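User: Modeling request: complex.
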Amino acid sequence: MKRKIILAGAKSAFAPPGIILMITFFAFGAMVRALEFPLALGIGLTLTTFAIPSQIVLLDEVSRGAAVLTTIIAVTLTAIRLFPMTMSLLPILRTPTTPRWQQYLLSHFIAVSVWVQSMISLPSLEREDRVPFYIAHCLTIISLTVATTIAGFYVAQSLPALYLAAALIITPLYFFLSLFRTATRKAEKYACLFGTVLAIPMMIHIPDYALILAGVIGGSMAYCLDRLISNSRK
Amino acid sequence: MTDTQTILFLVFLGFLATEPWRWLGVFISKDLDEDHEVIRYVRAISTALIAALVVRLIFSPPGVLAQTELSSRLIALVTATLVYTLTKQHVLLALCAGVVLFLICEGALI
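Assistant: Request completed. Predicted assembly structure:
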């Protein structure tokens, strides 16, 4: 019955994607502390933004004294990936009678790990069970991530510098690995390459806009290259 | 940086820069398929930005990470990637391996 589904949804928060998410939010909490931001900011971001790349970019830019507009653009560009993720998840999640406003609410929880877990769990469920499962999963996940953000923050306070550094390095490691996982198409693989290559000179010469420019220029180059190659094959 | 207004502003900023993409996904979810050119372009940009972010976090790291050796950070990255590839995408193991190698390079565990 419904209760079984809800329990299963809550339990799925502890599957590998959920555990990884908790670890990354722990690292986020540690970064909040390391950059001397208040815990309230960390919790607020976890609740309202709920996207680790966006949150990290926001903190990183602000701590480097970036302008508001630069920060907005950088965070926006990072969050674009939520668009295709939401688009592909919703048809699997909703029923013909799910109202639009509910879909908007449900979409708030979409992050890479939630998406991955949903793609694993939802298709094997009956249509009418999917939304309850998903809600149970997401509410559990978001509670856990807020808890681990707080934990990361407080643990960071008492860690010796070296171990705090180790907690901080989890974030770039995780992002790098997730590039492998999500860059399935050629264009995205080129994008990784161009983004990396462009970032280094830009960081040195145009630090304020390095992220945005490396992202837009690198991504555009990658896309064009991919199109050129696939067109030349035809 | 403990001013409540600043916190609210930044939270609001994060929300406004992120959430509309989810809304867009709900709004359009019927008409565009995932391989549409616009989606591919947009994903390329987003991916390139994350790659650039990784580069920045490794070469110009925040907070106390800045006091560590670049070589330790790079070795951690390479190790995590290797373990990830060898274990067929086991993220947790790869992360642990990366962190452990990092600590070893910084003179901790050995």
